[in-house]
Amino acid sequence: MIYRYSGHSGIQLPVLSLGLWHNFGSVDDFSVATQMVTRAFDAGICHFDLANNYGPVPGSAESNFGRIMKNELASHRDEMFIASKAGHDMWPGVYGDGSSRKNLIASCNQSLKRTGLEYFDVFYSHRYDGVTPVEETMQALIDIVRQGKALYAGISKYPPHLQQKCYDILKAAKVPCLLSQYRCSMFDHKAMNENFEVATLNGSGVICFSPLAQGLLTGKYDNGIPEGSRAARSTGFLQTSQVTPERVEAVKKLAQIAKERGQSIAQMALAWILADNRVTSCIIGTSSVAQLENNLATIDNLQFSDDEMDRINEILRDPVLQFD
Predict the structure, then answer these.
(1) Residue 236 placed within a domain
(2) pLDDT (mean) for 261-274
(3) For residue 162, is it within any domain?
(4) Which positions ≥6 away from 184 have C-beta within 8 Å?
């Protein structure tokens, strides 16, 4: 595994981190989840990304991860960097959603209980809710760190006009923002253009989620929408309408470049993000050990020639490929 320092901190993270957003909930095969987590750790992935609402059902990914930790990895806790987040809808009533102090502190306490951990390595505000003053949310993160419930604070998906304010508040309290998490892929450049540089200038590491555009950048949809795929589910984050002919055609062109590089399209898509030296890590989401192994092989070829980058960027230049 390859490791990079997170911003101006002394923390190193693997360039590939394992996310438990999908495939680790109560509806999923626990034995497969266990195999993926333990294989990832054996391969050098020491960073695991959770959130309170990951499942389904919400909370069950944390509970399952806690079981895996207890059964398989309890003696390795100090070799692991474990993250969780709060801010999206989690429980009934007016306090189970949003970025308030009430929600973040209650959520952190619940998440620690579900996972069986004494602390998280980093705890994030999962989003800006559009209502809660940033000062209130950041103070909640500061207090979570000072109470020993997390070692570091992070922000996720904060808009650029509030990003700097978050950094300033945290820095003034001597609890600097360790990580800034944003969605990013070949089909989603927005954060690269708007958020990465602000994070870097403030000494925060950058970590990317959905680097394969919810599976679009795997070639899975080259011949239509497979039954059981994310796009086939009415509740999925990848909608049928997003699997456009233009994106499918672009994936086929990109796959040809990947083939010439001796990579799968998924491996090249991950390597393309990691080619940006502002990125600390990419969060991968896998449904099987075989898929995990394919992603792990990305690190065998992270370098791009100028010609390869030019060809890739020419394909990606079309604005219709970009997600909103």
Answers:
(1) no
(2) 96
(3) yes
(4) 190, 191, 192, 208, 209, 210, 211, 273, 279
